[in-house]
Amino acid sequence: MSTVICGDSIKEIKKIDDNFIHLILSDIPYGISFDKWDVLHNNTNSALLGKSPAQSKSNLFKTRGKPLNGWSEADKQIPLEYYQWCTKWASEWLRVLKPGASCFVFAGRRYAHRCICALEDAGFIFKDMLSWQKDAAAHRAQNVSVVFDKRDDTVNAKKWAGWKLGNLRPLFEPILWFMKPYAIGDTLTDNIVQHEVGGYNENAVKNQPLLNQGIEICSNIIKCRTEKSDRGLHPAQKPISLMKYLIELTTLKGQTVLDPFCGCGSTLLAAKELGREYIGIEINPDYYNIVCKRLDG
Ligand SMILES: C[S@@+](CC[C@H](N)C(=O)[O-])C[C@H]1O[C@@H](n2cnc3c(N)ncnc32)[C@H](O)[C@@H]1O
């Protein structure tokens, strides 16, 4: 039976039976201080959202946009603390999945490796890394010459014309693909007979109208537009057609999809529209209410 729970998924997932879920599809917090729910480190003396000497001198630092200088020892611990946060739920994810079942995790480019290590350490097999190529992405990179112009340093402004501070436009996001190990001595085909998971369905994806909805499929690169209807409900909202693609690829109708960090419910809506059962968990009551409205609508 499908359900959405408002609560902490680290606790709530303990109520789900062993070997019950056919697919976990989740866009987890990336730990990059994108929003308050995304601050997963001990925020002591951290320049990121916490108090640092630099922050008390200046009010220029906002929630984001702060360069990663490793100014404080606390900042240097952020990747490790992200790994530790992932270990709080990774073994529960493994427990609730059926043997051979898939688990897709949207994890940010900066700390995805920490998430991979946490899930591997919990017992998952890391199968592949898919690339979601977006049609657009916000880009923050400062022109070096503009900074020199402000300092009236025309020589350097000319010398560094065309140079930028920051990253390249972030037009892809990794989707990590894990599998729960299946029984010793079984083949994957034996596992499919017993648990109805373990393979991927190329035909379902080829034959269905997703191809007309902004998705272009070429092996493990997925080009998918963000439609107008995929915006405005959550700062990390994911396209429904992308979630549908991943659900169709790995599950049959009637099977159960879990999203323990469901945000405004994109995974759940996709699962519902495809005739799958779903379980969603979201800690923020405002997003939980949006999920309920979306699913009712
Ligand atoms: C990256 S967002 C998911 C966005 C989602 N893909 C969508 O399309 O709306 C992650 C969500 O996890 C929620 N969250 C963070 N910690 C949580 C926890 N311990 N239990 C449940 N939800 C949590 C946040 O409130 C946030 O809405």
Tell me what the structure shows:
By secondary structure, the chain is α/β, with parallel strands linked by helices. It has 2 domains: 3-41 and 77-133 and 171-296, Rossmann fold (3-Layer(aba) Sandwich); 137-170, no CATH class. The protein has helices at 9-12, 53-57, 73-76, 78-96, 112-122, 144-150, 154-159, 188-195, 202-207, 240-250, 266-273, 285-296, and strands at 3-6, 21-27, 97-106, 125-133, 141-143, 164-166, 172-179, 215-218, 221-224, 256-259, 277-282. The protein has a 9-stranded mixed β-sheet with strand order 1-11-10-2-3-7-4-9-8. Strands 5-6 form a two-stranded antiparallel ribbon. Helix 4 (78-96) crosses helix 5 and helix 10 (240-250) crosses helix 11. The two termini are 18 Å apart. S-adenosylmethionine (SAM) is lined by residues 8-10, 27, 29, 37, 234, 236-238, 261, 263-264, 266, 281-284, 287.
